[in-house]
Amino acid sequence: MSKATDPNYWVFSNKPEDSYGNVWDQRAILRSGQYTIKESEPNQKGVRPGDVVYMRIYGQHYSGKFTVAGKWTPLDPAEQKWEGIVAGQFPMKDVVVWQRPLPQSLIIHDLSGKSIRQRIARITAEDGAMIETAQRVYARLGFGDADDNIIILEKGLEEAIKPNLKKMGLKLASKHLQQQFDMGPGVGRSDLICLDESGDLVVIELKRGMTSDETIGQVLRYVGWVRENIAAEGQNVHGWIIAGDYDEHLRLAASAANVRLVLIRLG
Prior knowledge:
Mean pLDDT: 83
Shape: elongated
Helix content: 10-25%
CATH class of the largest domain: Alpha Beta
CATH superfamily of the largest domain: ph1033 like domains
Number of domains: 2
Radius of gyration: 21 Å
Number of strands: 14
């Protein structure tokens, strides 16, 4: 029988970056060291100091873990961002962020708790050990290698990539093409458009976290538009994806579509 002092184990789930206007997303949580949770969230009152929490992005991956450092404390009323919602924070300690997040699909159906929708889900110590073992195996075996990898330290991804372009044999294209270039309704907005050492155009799509093969269609759409509307006669157009992580679906699709895949390490 578990002792009263033994920790409970939880999965806290969140939406991807920018889903909450940079207030409750995981980037903001890690920056502040406080995990924001609604007062009314089921299971919130069961979480106590010393409990172990695994962090998950809904539908994507497990990104790391932390220990609850104190009780849930309500935010100051002036800090509440939505009317009618009372939110507060759990202080975090011993935070571990995995360089290579564990895809949810590899583990979620093996856990004792089958809920994939709860924001706070109770799991067992054995579930926690299973998540960590799976992450270590995944990180060591991984998928096929990316075409290249770079390390960036700056917080803003697009601005951080720019100093690394020369290392990749690239430079920014003409001023009006460089960043967040709008290709019009139904096409989209490219992150960066560059020139390579041969003078060919390179359309770059940036993804901070895990990305899958749906990104290939996005990049190929941009490449097709640039080829038809911007490229000079005889000038080639290439597609690149620069991502914080990827799955095997993306790697295989990128290889078949001749899209270059570059893995970034966020320092």
